[in-house]
Design brief:
The chain is an alpha+beta fold. The chain has 16 helices and 17 strands. It folds into three domains: 3-285, no CATH class; 311-401; 412-468, Arc Repressor Mutant, subunit A, CATH 1.10.10.410. Bound molecules: adenosine-5'-diphosphate, magnesium ion and zinc ion. Magnesium ion binds at residues 10, 189, 207.
């Protein structure tokens, strides 16, 4: 029998607010253990949390970016559980009245992965296992998170990968998080079940906790799919449980049997007031939103004539798309600019964080000036390419590497004059060409190249000569 994979994701994203969700401590990553903490975020008696407004604003932006509905009223709840990384023995989260309801992430196929809701909550601390001992660092405790809960709409590992990448991309664009999976600022709980193809009901799911790389998500899902199918095929039953993925062995193992919401004895946090969200505030945030990557990508394809694959590369990181936007100002063909960026500049921004920063020595204005020289016919493509390399090496403008003589003689008028001269001075080649010898054209182009001391564009010269003879 063939089985279909069914998956839903719970994605935690750390928000880049300056301070924590309920106190004034810094949210900075790292730091000496237990130096970014105070009595509030470790929950000492006698302290009271106060909600950071910026967290609500960031979460609303996240909601708008995924087309969710922004609640008018939201509340904070306590999720009770005991673990050494959570000194209060409860996490302040949202269950009954989350900030964002619904929404979706659209994949490139056009399929929409629906979202159930997005809520805000505090992060827990971190356990560090070393030399057979366990230490606890509360620096991360109280760092604001949003949790994005999808519907079980994902049907393959490819859809899962794209879902995570799209979320990562859009949340980075709106500037609420760096979404670095390896640093833990984006983590996914991956729910997996299988069912016979064609079946309408869902199978029992397992939940793989805290996945911190897309590669591991894919491997864990593949492993879990096979494990569940084998189990069912051999007459067994999938047990609903929480799993951990071990990336060394590439297998999942049980952490605990799955608890339900009621096990956490959620209740309204009596220390925090109801959050009212005025519609004017939502509209003000909507007005502040940048153009979203999906819209940008569409516009590059439809309005600028950029091939789809290139448009995707240009919009994957916000800084790159902004570089492109600035560099195409007034140029004849945005595609030329795109080719320079993808063909030459990408090689100098290899890692993901390089691409995120896109902080190369050449400015968009410098690239723009180079492309305008090319547009005007003053320089040829090969010279432009070589010049860009030198620009990228030094941060200097194109004009530092291109002399007046490089630029002289090959603008449109000069090219016309050279072509006319070649035709007049080579009656035999002209006659041969007219007689059907295509090759004779080469001699004429060669003449233009010689008289321009190699600075004319051979293709342009050929086209011009054909036009003159045609
Ligand atoms: P809980 O809050 O107990 O983890 P939820 O019902 O809210 O449970 O679901 C959590 C996640 O599990 C959601 O992302 C949802 O899409 C996913 N999910 C629910 N049922 C299934 C299933 N049968 N197979 C795969 N994923 C599922
Ligand atoms: Mg869950
Ligand atoms: Zn604190």
């Amino acid at each position: 029998m063939k089985y279909e994979l069914v998956s839903g994701f719970e994605t935690h994203i750390e928000l880049q607010t300056k301070t924590k969700i309920f106190c004034g401590c810094t949210t900075q990553f790292g730091g000496e253990p237990n130096t970014h903490c105070c009595p509030v975020c470790i929950g000492l008696p006698g302290t009271l949390p106060v909600l950071n407004r910026e967290v609500v604003r960031f979460a609303i932006k996240a909601g708008l970016a995924v087309h969710g509905e922004i609640a008018s009223v939201a509340k904070m709840d306590r999720k009770n559980y005991c673990y050494p990384d959570l000194s209060k023995a409860y996490q302040i989260s949202q269950l009954y009245a989350p900030l964002i309801i619904g929404g979706y992430v659209e994949l490139s196929s056009g399929k929409k992965i629906r979202l159930h809701h997005i809520h805000i909550e505090e992060d827990a601390g971190k356990l560090i296992h070393r030399h057979g001992d366990t230490y606890v660092d509360y620096n991360r405790g109280g760092v604001p998170l949003i949790e994005i809960v999808s519907e079980p709409d994902i049907r393959s590992v490819d859809e899962a990968r794209e879902y995570v990448e799209k979320l990562q991309q859009v949340m980075r664009y709106i500037g609420i998080s760096d979404c670095r999976m390896q640093e833990g600022s984006m983590r996914c709980d991956v729910n997996v079940s299988v069912r016979p193809e064609g079946s309408e009901t869902f199978g029992t799911r397992t939940e793989i906790k805290n996945m911190n790389s897309i590669t591991n998500i894919v491997k864990a899902m593949e492993y879990e799919y096979d494990r569940q199918v084998d189990l069912i095929e051999s007459g067994g039953k999938v047990v609903q449980e929480t799993l951990r993925y071990d990336d060394v062995s590439g297998t999942t193992s049980s952490m605990r049997s799955k608890e339900d919401a009621h096990d956490y004895r959620y209740f309204r946090d009596p220390d925090l007031v109801t959050i009212n969200i005025p519609r004017e505030e939502v509209e003000a945030l909507r007005a502040e939103m940048p153009e979203l990557p999906a819209d940008k990508c569409r516009r590059y394809i439809d309005a600028l004539g950029i091939p789809e694959k290139d448009a995707q590369l240009l919009t994957k990181y916000r800084r790159i798309s902004e570089f492109f936007d600035a560099a195409i100002e007034g140029v004849k063909s945005p595609k030329t600019v795109s080719n320079f960026i993808i063909g030459q500049m990408f090689r100098r921004a290899e890692t993901e964080s390089d691409k995120e920063q896109f902080d190369l020595p050449t400015t968009p204005q410098q690239l723009n000036a180079l492309v305008k020289l090319l547009d005007s016919g003053k320089i040829r493509n090969n010279l432009a390419k070589a010049t860009l390399e030198k620009m990228l090496d030094t941060g200097k403008p194109a004009t530092d590497f291109i002399s007046e003589s490089d630029m002289g003689g090959v603008d449109d008028n000069a090219l016309l004059a050279l072509c006319k001269a070649a035709i007049e001075g080579n009656a035999k080649a002209v006659a041969d060409f007219r007689g059907g010898k295509e090759k004779a054209l080469k001699a004429l182009v060669g003449n233009v190249m010689k008289n321009s001391r190699g600075k004319a564009d051979a293709q342009a010269a050929e086209a011009k000569i054909k036009e003159l003879l045609g």
